[in-house]
C-alpha cells in the first residue's frame, strides 16, 4: 500500500474491486487476518482516532491495532457504498502524533506483541504440538500481563506445555543474538537466566522457564493467578533474602544426584535428564510457594 497525492491510499485489496473511494463513511471494515473490526462510529483508541472518522480518512500509516496488518487488507462488513461524483473532495487526513517516548504508544505496542505471541503459539498448539503426551488439556494459550519494561515488553507466556517469562525488544535489534544464547537479567527480586529464541511469527525474544510441563495447574484461572503473582514478585526485593543459600543448595543437590546409584534400563533412554541450574536465577525460589498453591 502506498500513500496517494491526496493523502489517501492506493493498492487497496479489500472490497469494491480495489476502489477505496467507494467505501461509505459509515461502513465498518474488518481485518482479513485477525477479523478486528474498525467501526467509524467508535474510532480507534489505540491510534487516538476520534469517533466519527470514516475508514477512508484514516492516516495512510494506520495499521490494524491487533495484528499490525496494513490498512489495504481490510474488507467491508456493510453494503453501504459512497456516492460516486466527478468532483469528489479529497479525503481529510487526521494527523496522529506517534512518539517513541509516549507511554501510551508503548502500551499499544505491547498489546500487539501479546496478540502476535498468542497467534504463534496457538498455531503451534494446533499443529506440531497437538498430540504430544505432556500437554495439560486444562490449559490454553494465553499471553498474560504483557507490558513495557524499559525498551522491552515483559510478560508471561502460558501454553498447555510451558509457562515462561518473556522479554521482547520494542525496537528490533540490528542483529539478533544467536538462538540459544543466554543472558542473566537483574530484577529487584534477583538475577534470572533467559535464553534467546526467534520465531518467524514473533521475531527475537528472551524466555525464562517458570514451569515445564505445567501439570501443577488444574484450570486456566489458577495458571493465570500464578503468572500474575510471578510478575508482581519479580519486583519485590524481599525475595533476594531467600536466595542467599541458593547456590549451596544447588551444589549439594548436584552432588547427591552424582553419587546416587542408577540402574540403566532401556526405558531410561527416553527419560528427560534432570537439569541442574548453575546460575543463581532464583526461579525456583520465586515459583516454589506458587507451585505448592497451584497444586493445592
- Helix percent reads 10-25%
CATH topology name of the largest domain: Yope Regulator, Chain: A
Termini gap = 54 Å
The ordered H/E elements are EEEEEHEEEEEEHHHH
How many domains make up the 3D coordinates? Answer: 2
Note the main sheet: 6 strands, antiparallel
Q: Name the quaternary structure.
A: single chain
Task: Describe the structure using short key phrases.
296 residues; alpha+beta; Rubrerythrin, domain 2; Yope Regulator, Chain: A; 6-stranded antiparallel β-sheet; 3-stranded antiparallel β-sheet; 5 helices; 11 strands; 20% strand; elongated; disordered N terminus
How is this structure best described in words?
Helix 2 (220-233) runs antiparallel to helix 5 (283-295). The chain has 296 residues and is α+β, with helices and mostly antiparallel strands. Helix content is 23%, strand content 20%. The chain has helices at 103-126, 220-233, 239-242, 246-259, 283-295, and strands spanning 2-3, 9-10, 29-31, 37-38, 74-76, 142-149, 152-158, 163-169, 182-187, 190-199, 203-211. It has 2 domains: 2-76, Rubrerythrin, domain 2; 103-256 and 276-295, Yope Regulator, Chain: A, CATH 3.30.1460. A 6-stranded antiparallel beta sheet has the order 6-7-8-11-10-9, with helices on both faces. A 3-stranded antiparallel beta sheet has the order 4-3-5, with no helix packed on it.
Amino acid at each position: 500500500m502506498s500513500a496517494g497525492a491526496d493523502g489517501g491510499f492506493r493498492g487497496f485489496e479489500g472490497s469494491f474491486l480495489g476502489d477505496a473511494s467507494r467505501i461509505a463513511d459509515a461502513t465498518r471494515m474488518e481485518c482479513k487476518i485477525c477479523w478486528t473490526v474498525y467501526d467509524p462510529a467508535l474510532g480507534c483508541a489505540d491510534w487516538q482516532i476520534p469517533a466519527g472518522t470514516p475508514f477512508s480518512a484514516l492516516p495512510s500509516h494506520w495499521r490494524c491495532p491487533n495484528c499490525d496488518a496494513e490498512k489495504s487488507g481490510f474488507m467491508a462488513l456493510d453494503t453501504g457504498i459512497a456516492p460516486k461524483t466527478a468532483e469528489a473532495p479529497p479525503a481529510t487526513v487526521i494527523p496522529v502524533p506517534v512518539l517513541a517516548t509516549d507511554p501510551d504508544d508503548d502500551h499499544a505496542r505491547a498489546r500487539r506483541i501479546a496478540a502476535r505471541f498468542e497467534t504463534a503459539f496457538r498455531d503451534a498448539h494446533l499443529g506440531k504440538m497437538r498430540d504430544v503426551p505432556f500437554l495439560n488439556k486444562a490449559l490454553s494459550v494465553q499471553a498474560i500481563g504483557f507490558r513495557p519494561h524499559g525498551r522491552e515488553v515483559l510478560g508471561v507466556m502460558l501454553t498447555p506445555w510451558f509457562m515462561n517469562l518473556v522479554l521482547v525488544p520494542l525496537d528490533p535489534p540490528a542483529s539478533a543474538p544467536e538462538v540459544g544464547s543466554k543472558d542473566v537479567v537483574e530484577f529487584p527480586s534477583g538475577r534470572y537466566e533467559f535464553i534467546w529464541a526467534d520465531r518467524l511469527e514473533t521475531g527475537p525474544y528472551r524466555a525464562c522457564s517458570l514451569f515445564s510441563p505445567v501439570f501443577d495447574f488444574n484450570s486456566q484461572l489458577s495458571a493465570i493467578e500464578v503468572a500474575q503473582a510471578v510478575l508482581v514478585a519479580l519486583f519485590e526485593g524481599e525475595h533476594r533474602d531467600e536466595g542467599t543459600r541458593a547456590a549451596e543448595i544447588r551444589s549439594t543437590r548436584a552432588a547427591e544426584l552424582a553419587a546416587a546409584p542408577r540402574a540403566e534400563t532401556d526405558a531410561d533412554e527416553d527419560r528427560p535428564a534432570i537439569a541442574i541450574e548453575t546460575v543463581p536465577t532464583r526461579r525456583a525460589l520465586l515459583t516454589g510457594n506458587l507451585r505448592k498453591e497451584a497444586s493445592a
